[in-house]
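PROTOCOL LOG
Step 1. Enter all chains and additional molecules of the complex.
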Amino acid sequence: MTTTALRLAGRTRVERVSFIAEKDRQGAWWRFIFLILATAIVLVPIAVVVILALMPGLGSSAHGLTLTNFAHVFTGTQTLTWLGNSTVVTLATVVISVIVAAPAGYVLSRGRSKTVTGYSLLLFVVQSLPVITSVVPLFILFANFGLVDNLAGITIIYVGSSMSVATWMLAAYFDSIPASLEEAAWIDGTSIFGSFTRIVLRNSLPGILSTAIFTFLLAWNDYLVAIVFLRTTSTFTLPMGLQSFFQQNATDWGSVMAVAVIMMLPPVIVFATLNRYFSVGGIGGALAGR
Amino acid sequence: MTIGGTLQRQRGLTLGVLIVPSVFFLLLLNAYPVVYAAIQSLHQGSLIATGPFVGLANFTDVLTQASFWHAAGFTLVFTLVGVFGSWLVGLGFALVLNRYVPAGGVFKVLLLLPWVVPIVVSSTSWNWLVATPSSPLPQLWHLLGWGTPLFLADPTLAAVMVCVFKVWVSFPFMMMMTSSALASVDGTVYEAAAMDGAGRVQQFRHITMPLIARSTYISWILMTIFCVNDFPTIYLLTGGGPVDATTSLVVLAYRTVFQNFQTGPGVAIAFLMTAALVIVSVVLFRQIRKSAVE
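Step 2. Run joint prediction.
Step 3. Record the structure below.
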């Protein structure tokens, strides 16, 4: 439903550009100059990270830009372990979230009963509960199963906290796949499950990708769950690893910023390459449509 | 009976099975913790033991503490500035980008960066920029002859910095929400309005705003939830200081549980916060319904 609207919107936009292009170009250069200045100011904190990461570290004799900070954090610190931990946790969260949310999203999209609507509402209530409320009980529960200070433990929690939004996003996408396609398959003897996997899922790559991006950002960027659950440096994810630099007496900014660059690269690359699949409008529409 | 009947039964069964994994995770990771937290809030326990039953004492304790009301006040300010500040900035950029600009697509991606970059990274960089008297921003202030303010050591300035940081982090989200809403507005409406002599401001007030009202309310609700529940933006920049000046309810709850080890009061704070959040969400949700009817 939402996607259809977006697609329609896209078409209108193209027509409009050709229709009033002349008038729309008025002041285009002023807007351009404004955007250059504003974007430059906005990006200062991000540029600072990159520049400091490439500057020679403390006590180094190098001049100009250098990669010594990166060499140092990979050889002299546990950054490689943290990068590995973050990668494993994030990938596992993305895969499990989609596996759990896709069937649920299908039910929300196709089943139109009171129970289904109720479940959707329940997901909304759960979503607005602060993570801090559930973190304490889960800490106690997980301690019994050895899941505190454990990567599997935080993965399970990330799946739980991304589930609601992932389910809505997928349900909204499934809504855009015509039920008639499935009905035709049913008449040919395909089971409901078969039509879900072979027709709906197979045609939902953009929806699955945007859900995956959302889940990826949530797991990769999280700090609150990590600070509560991770205790030893060998289980740290990158956010905890980065913060651990500040516990030393004098902060080695070169190393800190090198780790910061390593940490921000994956989300930036994902967004730069896949941003056309990611529309927050989709999240909003999914929320309001149900 | 008929093929249709069998299909219906198969359908119900399949849908029932498909929802099972989701229900399992919901019960384990969301329902169970909330119930357990509710029990904890009525006991004087710790992280390892439930402790004796104390009734509503945790709630009355919390509600009579000045620190709670201070944190509630800061949460309110932080949320209001976070929601409307990021909305105004995001709306401004969305309006500029909605018209023809050379390399508009590049700006759109670049302006998303503050939202995409992990908070742990951006807070580190903001700290480097403002924290000490020798940091770049205080130095710039000094050069301009405005003195050398201690941005994170002065209670008022620290609160301002945290709010500015939050707006910086969140405006791209509002920009994306508004952009997709603006893109769906039919351009010919403006043509007609212009012919009727409506100026830019009038067009914006009477055409654009009503048409994007629904999406605007949704973005306010989402951002309210993000702001009230926000932990890292505040905790990583100031740690809640100086002297609790930037302690929000989440930060207070975190400290009460994990630094003072008072589980009951900590969970009570989280619950009171949630209650307030649900009320605000419901009120805003009603607004959406209303704007949908119009």
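Step 4. Note key features.
The mean pLDDT of chain B is 86.
The CA atoms of residues 35 and 41 of chain B lie 10 Å apart.
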